[in-house]
């Protein structure tokens, strides 16, 4: 049985789940700040053990992003990712203003495109939308110094 727990994601669980799928390593300070600035977090537990998570970042009115949707490899293909994604989507809808449209975005890991398409996402570029883009910034000194 899968238990979903809202807004209780701790740093150790977050970092362990990221490591389990070989996401970029974060410092504890980065992880702490990221979690503190998340709009919403969700952790999936199976038999009392965290096997997946997702979090939402954004402004809650115009745009929200799915960030760090992670399912441990040994728990993939059990429907947990879809359950987390649909719960994240319900949360975003609950934050929006009646009669408006909100952008619900993400950047998926390579090879996961079909999973997201199955859940209603469209791949960019399209006829109207350009490609998504990214830039990694190396920080050479401590914040505040």
Q: Quote the distance from N terminus to C terminus.
A: 48 Å
Across the major sheet, the strand order is: 1-2-3-4-5
Residue fraction in strands: 15-25%
The ordered H/E elements are: EHHEEEHEH
Biggest sheet character: 5 strands, mixed
Average pLDDT rating: 93
Structural class: alpha+beta
Q: Spans of 5+ residues with little confidence (pLDDT < 50)?
A: none
Q: Could you give the count of β-strands?
A: 5
Give the fraction of residues assigned to helices.
25-40%
Q: Number of helix segments? A: 4
Identify the quaternary structure here: single chain
Shape: globular
Based on CA atoms alone, the radius of gyration comes out at: 16 Å
Can you tell me about this structure?
The longest helix has 16 residues. Strands 1-2-3-4-5 form a five-stranded mixed β-sheet. The chain contains four helices and five strands; from the N terminus they run βααβββαβα. The chain is 28% helix and 23% strand. The protein has 145 residues and is α+β, with helices and mostly antiparallel strands.
């Amino acid at each position: 049985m899968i238990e979903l727990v809202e807004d209780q994601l701790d740093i150790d669980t977050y970092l362990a789940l990221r490591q389990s799928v070989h996401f970029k390593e974060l410092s504890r300070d980065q992880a702490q700040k990221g979690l503190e600035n998340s709009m919403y977090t969700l952790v999936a537990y199976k038999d009392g053990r965290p096997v997946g998570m997702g979090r939402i970042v954004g402004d809650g009115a115009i745009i929200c992003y799915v960030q760090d949707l992670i399912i441990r490899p040994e728990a993939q293909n059990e429907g947990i990712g879809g359950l987390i994604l649909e719960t994240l989507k319900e949360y975003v809808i609950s934050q929006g203003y009646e009669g408006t449209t909100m952008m619900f975005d993400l950047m998926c890991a390579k090879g996961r495109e079909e999973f997201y398409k199955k859940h209603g996402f469209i791949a960019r570029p399209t006829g109207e939308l350009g490609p998504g883009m990214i830039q990694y910034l190396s920080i050479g000194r401590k914040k505040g110094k």
